[in-house]
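[stage:ingest] chain + small molecule (flavin-adenine dinucleotide)
[stage:ingest] validated
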Amino acid sequence: MDFGVSERMKVILEMVREFMDKEVYPLEPYFVVKPFREMWPEIDRCRQMVKKMELWAPQVPAELGGMGLNVVEHALMAEELGRSPLGYLVFGCQAPDAGNIEILAKYATPEQRREYLLPLVRGEIRSCFSMSEPEFAGSNPTELATTAVLVNGQWVVNGHKWFSSSADGARFAVVMAVTDPEASVYQRASMIIVPTDTPGFNLVRNISILGHAGDDYASHGEILYQDCRVPADNLLGPRGQGFVIAQERLGPGRIHHCMRWIGICNRCFEMMCRRAGERKVGRGKTLADKQIIQEWVAESRAEILAARLMVLFAAWKMETEGLYAAREEVSLIKFYVAPVMLRVIDRAIQVHGGLGVTDDTILSFFYRMERGARIYDGPDEVHKVVAARRILREFSSAG
Ligand SMILES: Cc1cc2nc3c(=O)[nH]c(=O)nc-3n(C[C@H](O)[C@H](O)[C@H](O)COP(=O)(O)OP(=O)(O)OC[C@H]3O[C@@H](n4cnc5c(N)ncnc54)[C@H](O)[C@@H]3O)c2cc1C
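[stage:predict] done
[stage:export] tokens:
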């Protein structure tokens, strides 16, 4: 088995590391305390530099304006970018846009491509994905209540959504709505593109999460669609295929999150080890001399390594055999990696003591912002059930 990295990727990763050190990490102390909009000019300055360095949109095919990295190469780069909450955004591979780019690249009409896909890839506009609804279990998106009805050549969208991440300031939403209520559960819904300046698109609020409502890109919107009318041509992909498209979108999205989480693990782990070695606790000893801390270090290292290899394997399988073949691995990493990351963040905070819960380091930001990792894109429990059912099926057919 070859764990080597190509010469080209070595150069790319070195450039990324250098840029992160010089331009991205220095923005973090401001990012964690300032409104996002105030940070935007600095972030955008970095994005323009990244474009000049030709490191923009690593996961997007070159013909659309990205770097065209394969899934494993993207995983390696994502690991570096995930070390900072700004990494993905500065390099143009942030959720929810990356997922929307994925489905637009596959399904957009020439007009949708020109109007939405290409400006989105170039980072000129932002988007959101509007599937989850407060009144229904998001874990089972076949239960949606939002409707889109064709009236005189227009879709009329009505419904209540929440957790439409980054809706504030987005140019458009990809809305999952029931278009065919009489069809079977998996064919009732479709994807519709709704520009956010359409009358009837009402951003009710940015939902406060663990004490922070956020703003602009760094927010999660609650939206009321009230007789929101868009042209019939705003249907994205085939009618009735919303569920399939959602799965196609979430598969790569999950792996992108897991890759980013490995970066967070590495960053927090390094901070924990450094602090343990520096912090004196009397009689010439440091925290690193204490066995209980040594146990956290060893356990964290083992868990991160296991998680990393699982993510790289899932990436390799997705690259070589496709999303469908890799769906078990994607479920496994989704519920395995998130708790590893949360444990590592927690241990790093504990080693930092009081400092760990201040905003003087990035640890408290990760702690706050990443708790959702065990919930979004399918809660842990759902992925466990899905993976277990698939595994058990193999045994029952063998028996
Ligand atoms: C930070 C964040 C960002 C998000 N961004 C978006 C976005 O951009 N767009 C969007 O549309 N949505 C988004 N979501 C919503 C997310 O997809 C849903 O929260 C998720 O699907 C879970 O749905 P729910 O919250 O309704 O929980 P429920 O479905 O009510 O589930 C609650 C809990 O029940 C358990 N559970 C559920 N089903 C099962 C089962 N079958 N077996 C065992 N246990 C089960 C799980 O523990 C789960 O956490 C985001 C959520 C978060 C937290």
